[in-house]
Amino acid sequence: MALPAQFATRMSRMKASEIRELLKLLDQPGMLSFAGGIPDAAFFPAEAFAGAFQDALSPGRQAQSLQYSVSEGYLPLRQWIVSHMARLGVTCRPENVLITSGSQQALDYLGKLFLSPGDTALVGWPTYLGALAAFNAYEPRYDRLRVGENRSHAEYASAAEAAGGRVKFAYLSPDFDNPTGLTLTPAERLQVLDTAAALDCAVIEDAAYQGLRYDGDPVQPLLALEQAQKAGDLEACRTIYCGTFSKTLSPGLRVGWVVASTPVISQLVLMKQAADLHSPTLNQIAIHQVADALFDPHTAALREAYRSRRDAMLAALQDHMPPGVSWTRPEGGMFIWVTLPEGLNAAALLERALAEEKVAFVPGQAFFADGSGENTLRLSFSNSQEAEIAEGMTRLGRILTSAN
Amino acid sequence: MALPAQFATRMSRMKASEIRELLKLLDQPGMLSFAGGIPDAAFFPAEAFAGAFQDALSPGRQAQSLQYSVSEGYLPLRQWIVSHMARLGVTCRPENVLITSGSQQALDYLGKLFLSPGDTALVGWPTYLGALAAFNAYEPRYDRLRVGENRSHAEYASAAEAAGGRVKFAYLSPDFDNPTGLTLTPAERLQVLDTAAALDCAVIEDAAYQGLRYDGDPVQPLLALEQAQKAGDLEACRTIYCGTFSKTLSPGLRVGWVVASTPVISQLVLMKQAADLHSPTLNQIAIHQVADALFDPHTAALREAYRSRRDAMLAALQDHMPPGVSWTRPEGGMFIWVTLPEGLNAAALLERALAEEKVAFVPGQAFFADGSGENTLRLSFSNSQEAEIAEGMTRLGRILTSAN
User: Fold this and answer.
1) How far is residue A167's CA from residue A157's CA, in Å, rounded to a whole number?
2) What is d(CA B117, CA B319) in angstroms, rounded to the nearest whole number?
3) Which end of chain B has the smaller Cβ count within 10 Å, N or C?
4) Domains in chain B: how many in total?
5) Alpha helix locations (H) across A172-261?
6) φ/ψ of residue A68, rounded to 5
7) What angle do CA B306, B308, B309 make, to 5 degrees?
8) Closest residue in A to B281 (Cα–Cα)
9) Same domain, yes or no, for A52 and A15?
10) Above 70 in pLDDT, residue A105?
11) Residues of A353-366 as b/e, b for ≥16 C-beta within 10 angstroms?
């Protein structure tokens, strides 16, 4: 039995697995990795979770916590998210919230909801490679979402039509973007909303890192800005907000959420019911208890810790990068994006870095829908201590200096 | 922004949500429901789970249990499944196992893997409505899988071609089928394998109820029969086995698995990585600990309890059904399938049953891909005590007697 040919095509642009192969080398002793964009497990509120799971499994509660539940998600958690969103400037009701298995699942479902083969998705150049992986299964065409550049809406639309489809959504992570670390200004966010309105397409706002701001002024989510434009009417909004507890409380529990107008949520609920029935009941109950008890102080401590690591990485880059190398200065999140001189290939450099210096990063090319970006790379500072960061940037500097 | 038109089509055959609306009436006091196909929460091994979660969250283990993990699933759990499958007659390795978020997720992924719009899926008439819901998103055509009937392979193939696609798989639940409760004989299983071989298509074996046999001799899974045909070579097998802990340990934790040849598993792993990264780490660790400690004695006790309920329902049906009503006598699982006299409409009867007798069931029509089966209904005996079953069948008998 041959696997269907069309599936091979759908998967051909998935580079995450190739990267993972390479990253298996990371288990070598002495390796310093700035590759994985993962939280530091030392900061997980494990004790609080132990208590929450114990409570949820105490006598009399198993009939809820271990049983099937509704596809929309655990109501008290959706209510908590309603309050959380209110603090970000979004007014919504539990009917506007769907609990997903991480925000990755939201991206998969939104691809499934909107994309037919040949439709266009507007994405950053670069963008989150997991978003490309999720969308690829639905065989879209990608076009570059240009923010702050002079590109007419008609150009997007006619290019999409020429490819045999329509622009179905713009996808972006406006706060401390993965991989660039960059944040869009309010004006840039409004420009994205204008573009989407002109194209009558959705906006997928990936807010994975939203809670991890280390300095600078918070910027309202696109969904809040759009809701304000529409006199507070969430039902009139085209923005679909994807949040997650993965970067703040625990990624391993796989709990995220979507906030959108009820027609979108209703479709996603049907989709989730058909695709995995619901996210684990117990995990939602435990996340709710822990979020309710300590979200604010926990994330404040987290920001403090990650801020020091970001600062350590920025200082070490300043000290060790050779001339011609530039990098972003993110106000939050987990990533710094490095641009090497033209002509250097980060994937080739990675092989040398692993072998000669035992230091790892992610070559930037994987984040570009068109395969460009050879001379870029992503560094994560979230999962390394300050001393490791200093030593790691020293090693990276040696490799780059010898490559120049 | 209008939601894409093609999506409305994809969802139009999803009846599960309509049924759910109706079932919201079930919260009325005094209602006896035989509708939901859910395990009795009183039997969940809650204490064992409380211990397992506590262990997994004990100091030093959070770095594993709350962190991101691999898409394939937790290795010790995959190893446990390898042993479990060996006892069912299937020889496999951990590389042949993918952990999914319930077997529902496996059905979604397999639809995504195999189906392009217009392709044909062979299913039972009736079949599990959640399978239809999962596959519908990929816009297949359905054809009736006829087991024990005289239908040539060429007929399946030419009908599929006429519809613009190919037969991509046969889907079936060979043990105590949902909704019929019926079990395929070894000869019938071999016939399905022959049909699939002639059509060069996959076989999706949904083994959700496999562990719940109350009497009669166990029948080997299709995957075991096929592996025997192929001299033990799992890599040559077209059968894809979908298992779950939902009916034995807990549905709310959402842990299931797929066993198949490595090319199929590799594709599904890529798909899972793109769709939700991985199933919750902690849940997999806890399920492994509980399964390892008590799967056999726990499922033995469960079979004992459910057997009594099945027997109670069969006896009560015998006592209370009017002439012209027939039903299946399942050797396991959770369901009895009832056929009413031609011309009766089970959906209309349900409205009367809820209003007049406070008794609930699922009208059978939802389980037919062609919308037939108006005069059928599904009863679940798993979540009701014997006295409730006796009273419920008395009520149902009254409604059916007055309807005749």
Assistant:
1) 7
2) 48
3) C
4) 2
5) 186-199, 222-229
6) -55, 150
7) 65
8) A252
9) no
10) yes
11) bbeebbbbbbbbbb
Choosing from A259, A277, A294, the residue where a domain stops is A294
Residue with tokens 């298996």: A24
Mean of the pLDDT values across residues A127-151? 94
Give the whole-angstrom CA distance, residue A156 versus residue A123. Answer: 12
Chain B, 47 to 86: residues with Cβ < 8 Å from chain A are 49-50, 53-54, 57-59, 62-69
A116 touching B (Cβ < 8 Å): yes
pLDDT in tens, B118-136: 999 999 999 999 999 999 9
pLDDT single digits (tens) A220-253: 999 999 999 999 999 999 999 999 999 999 999 9
DSSP code per residue over B51-115: HHHHHHTSTT-HHHHTS---TT--HHHHHHHHHHHHHTT----GGGEEEESHHHHHHHHHHHHH-
pLDDT value of residue B151:
85
B residues 326-355 lying closer than 8 A (beta carbon) to A: none
Domain that holds residue A25: 3-45+296-403
Please give the mean pLDDT across all residues of chain B.
94
Q: Of A266, A294, A322, which one is at a domain's C-terminal end?
A: A294
B3 interfaces chain A, CB cutoff of 8 Å: yes
Task: Give the residue on A whose Cα is nearest the Cα of B240.
Answer: A1
Q: What is the pLDDT of residue B126?
A: 98
Where residue B260 falls among pLDDT bands split at 50, 70, 90? Answer: very high
Does the pLDDT value for residue A3 go beyond 90?
no
Would you state the pLDDT for residue A12?
Answer: 38
Query: 3-state class of A368 per DSSP?
Result: coil
Q: Do A65 and B252 touch (CB under 8 A)?
A: yes
Interface of A with B in 124-143 (CB under 8 A): 130, 133-134, 136-137
- Read off the pLDDT of residues B364-403 as tens digits, 9 standing for 90 and up: 999 999 999 999 999 999 999 999 999 999 999 999 999 8
Is residue B366 within 8 A of residue B20, CB to CB? The reply is no
B85 and B109 together in one domain = yes
